[in-house]
Amino acid sequence: MSATDWSALGVNLAATAGAALTVLLATFAVGVRRGLHRIVDIAWGIAFAAVAVVTWLLSAGHGDDGRRLLVAAATVVWGLRLAAHIAHRSRGHGEDPRYTALLDKAPGSRTLYALRVVYLGQGALVWLISLPVQAASYSSAPLDALAYGGLAVWATGLAFEAVGDRQLARFKADPANRGRIMDRGLWAWTRHPNYFGDSLVWWGLYLLACTGWQPALAVLLSPVLMTLLLTVGSGKRLLEKHMADRPGYAAYAARTSGFFPLPPRGRARRDP
Question: Could you list the residue ranges that cross the membrane (predicted)?
């Protein structure tokens, strides 16, 4: 069983909390200046990348170099790809209806409420979900079969997420598809290939942190929390609520898995 440098990891936890807070506070300043809080979605991936870089730097001499580099690189690649995708997708758009609805309920100052609930809340989630990245970096265990299995799960998730995003972007870019429901490619197998891929990414990173029963148990909450956020939190649940009245969506939902990819039920039908 490998040793985890718990005391050094404790210092790292404080430093990464500061890194996540810095990214989210800087984003808050930009959001207030522009009057556009949807940019916090771009900061989500950047904050994870910042946590990974800080952890890689601070863990030098405390963990296995191969594991440190692998987990940092995997997190940065995922985080920056996601940030770039969201930035490109949101160009030219106004405020996200989710944030408008949330801030309309603010009990007092909308700005302070946005800071507390939207920005600091997401910063806390970044820190908590990134625990596997931090714990893996402070383990002395060399890369093993489980670590490479985790890398394979991560890569599968990244591919699902990136391919799903690309397929949807191309579908929306075609004027002939205006008003239609995307039910092609990966979207014929799951209504949320991007969310499913996101979940796999974090289960893969979790496996990289499983270098003993103690770290495995200590950071298990992180991939569970990410999966819950994607399925019953602000991801799948809110998007499907928004899409529910769209013509053809009920039929699409009836034949297509809600999360885990499965063959479509019955004959796929193109929406008129």
Answer: 6-30, 42-63, 113-133, 145-164
Structure token digits, residue 268: 């796929």
Domain-embedded: residue 260: no
Residue carrying the six token digits 């970096």: 137
Residue 247 pLDDT:
85
Structure tokens that stand for 35 in this block: 């009057």
pLDDT score of 268: 46
Question: What pLDDT is attached to residue 269?
Answer: 45
For residue 202, what are its two tokens?
């974090």
What is the rounded distance in angstroms from the CA atom of residue 255 to the CA atom of residue 147?
Answer: 36
**Alpha-carbon distance values, 175 to 163, 170, 205, 234, 242 (Å):** 21, 10, 39, 29, 21
Give, in order, the Cα–Cα distances in Å from 137 to each of 21, 65, 200: 21, 8, 20
Domain count, the chain: 1
Q: Which domain holds residue 68?
A: 6-255
Query: By three-state DSSP, how is residue 64 classified?
Result: coil
User: Does 19 map to a domain?
Assistant: yes
79 within domain boundaries: yes
Given a cut of 70, is residue 32 above it in pLDDT? yes
Separation of alpha carbons 181 and 44, rounded Å: 27
Question: Residue 242 pLDDT more than 80?
Answer: no
Q: What does the alpha-carbon distance between residue 34 and residue 60 come to, in Å, rounded to a whole number?
A: 39
